[in-house]
Fold Phosphonate ABC transporter ATP-binding protein.
Amino acid sequence: MIEIKNLHKSFGEEKILKGIDFVFETGKTNLIIGQSGSGKSVLLKCMLGLFTPEQGTIEYDGDAYSSFNEEQKRDLRTKVGMLFQGGALFDSMTVEENVMFPLRMFTKTKKKDLKDRVHEVLERVNLNDTGQKYPAEISGGMQKRVAIARAIVNRPKYLFCDEPNSGLDPHTATVIDNLIHDLTVEYDITTVVITHDMNSLLEIGENIAFLKDGVLAWKGDKTQIFKTEDETVTDFVYSSDLFKKVRVAQQRGI
Ligand SMILES: Nc1ncnc2c1ncn2[C@@H]1O[C@H](COP(=O)(O)OP(=O)(O)OP(=O)(O)O)[C@@H](O)[C@H]1O
C-alpha cells in the first residue's frame, strides 16, 4: 500500500499538486486519470522519489519515504518495477538481455539462476520463443510484454506504469491491461497506472484517482465512475465520443 497524505509540490511560484490525499491499495490496479497538465506525472515522480514535495508524506506500507536513509532508499528501489511509456527497451540488447538487466543491476543472482528467472517471466507473459530476438524484430504489443517482464523480474512490491497502452490497438491494449491486472493480483503488488485510455477505466479501474488542476477531484472505482453525476468527472469521462454515446444510451435505458 502506498499512502499519500496532504502532498504539495510547486515549481517556483506555480503550485502543481495542492494537497493530495490518496491510498493506492495492494493487490489492485490503482489508476491516476485527469486532463493533460493536471499533475499525474508529477505525482508519480514524487512517489518514485524523483521530485521532493514541499509538504505532505508518502508512505510505503506504513514507512514514510522522507524518513528513509540512503540505504533504505536503495532498498526501496529494488522493490519497484517501472513500465515506461513506449516500453523503453534497449534496442541493442536481445529480449533476454533486456529482461535480465534489472536482475544484473540490483541483485547478485548467479548466472544460471538469471537465465531461469528470465525464462520464467518470459513464459508468464507468453513470450516463450522470443528471448534471442531484438526489440525491432517483434511487434509493439510483444515489446510491451517484454517491458512488463522486465518490470516484474525482480518480484517488485510496487509497480508503476506510465500510459502502458499508448500506441497499441484496442485489442492489444486490453490484453496488456489484463496482464498488468493479473500480475498485480498474482504477486500481490501495489500497482499504479497513469492512463488516458477510457477502456482501461472499464477494464482495470479498481481504484481511481481523478486529478484536476493538482487537486484530487474525485475517487472511486469503475462502477462508480460511470454512474456518478459529478460534472467534473462526467465532463472528463464523456469527452470521448464513444463514451458520450454510451452515456446517452444509458440515460435512455437502452
Ligand atoms: N520539472 C518541471 N519543472 C517545471 N514544471 C514542471 C515540471 N514537470 C512538470 N511541470 C509542470 O507541472 C504541470 C503538470 O505536469 P504533469 O506532467 O504532471 O501533467 P500530466 O497530468 O502528467 O499531463 P500529461 O497527461 O500531458 O502527461 C504542468 O504545468 C507542467 O508544465
User: Anything to note?
Assistant: The pocket of adenosine-5'-triphosphate is lined by residues 11, 16, 34, 36-42 (CB under 6 Å). The mean pLDDT is 89. The first strand starts at residue 2 and ends at 11.
